[in-house]
Amino acid sequence: MSNFWTTFKGNKGAVVGLVILAIVLLASIFAPMLYTTSPWDMVNMPFMAPGVDSSVPLGTDTLGRDIAAGLAHGAYISLLVGFVSTIVSLCIGIPLGAAAGYFGGWVDDVLMRITEFFQVIPSFAFAIVLVAIFEPSITSMIVAIAVVSWPPVARLLRGEVMSLKHREFIEAAELSGQSGFTIITRQILPNTISPVIVLASMMVATAILTESALSFMGLGDPNVMSWGYIIGAGRTVLQQAWWISFFPGVAILLTVLAFNLIGEGLNDALNPRLAKRRG
């Protein structure tokens, strides 16, 4: 663990990403305490520029709502959708990829054809269709993003499992009479956790971008404030009130950048070949 943290800290970008993510997490946690009123409430004059009134440091939107309050409450939605949809994607992709890689044959053929079917469909367009079919909500967005995000996980696990299943410790487990399920869960999956963690960090960033894009298009949950919704609400008044779309756009940029930087740091710290090269 100490070696992991030492290597991770060696990547300055990863540390910066971790700091940015910590700030976003704190904002999402303390948003209800910092802004006790609803982010939908009108708190001041519409189109108030940033810095004019200290009570609304980032200004107000077209209806006089506090941009800062919207950003703080929107952080929770973006992180919630990002993390939960990634977890659901992993729960789909890991079993399918592990089964395809370990059993091979017709199992591999069937599962990979299913994976390819989902991969050939443009993911964002597919997500739009799925959300449009169901009532726009947090749940429908999570499901839609998870459905379009699991194929890379399955392919990654398939490759990792295929590289491990002929190792001596796997053959020893088979000779001892362990079932395929036991071998996969106890012997193979623990040895594939490193690349999965790295991929998951990238998937969270992609999920946040997808959620923001869906909300921007009006397909988000109408009952919750999100960064994508704020950008969409301000797109028609960019010349008059640039700050409405600017600040949530910066929030999305920094959050996505943070996850990508953390992913690079995790790759350095968890990749044994890179660790040996650094040592």
List the SSEs and their pairings:
Elements lengths: L1 H9 L1 H23 L32 H37 L1 H16 L2 H11 L4 H27 L3 H8 L4 H9 L4 H24 L10 H8 L8 H28 L1 H7 L1
Helix pairs in contact: 1-11, 2-3, 2-11, 3-4, 3-6, 3-9, 4-6, 5-6, 6-9, 7-8, 9-10, 9-11, 10-11
Strand content: under 5%
Question: What's the count of strands?
Answer: 0
Q: Please write the CATH class name.
A: Mainly Alpha
Low-confidence segments: none
Overall shape: it is elongated
Order of helices and strands: HHHHHHHHHHHH
Instruction: Please count the helical segments.
Output: 12
Tally of domains: 1
Second CATH tier, the architecture:
Orthogonal Bundle
**Mean pLDDT, as a whole number?**
90
- Please report the distance between the alpha carbons of the first and last residues: 16 Å
**In which range does the helix fraction lie?**
over 70%
CATH topology category name: MetI-like fold
- Pairing-aware structural class of the strands and helices? mainly alpha
**Relevant CATH superfamily:** MetI-like
| Gyration radius over CA | 22 Å
Q: Sketch the major β-sheet.
A: none
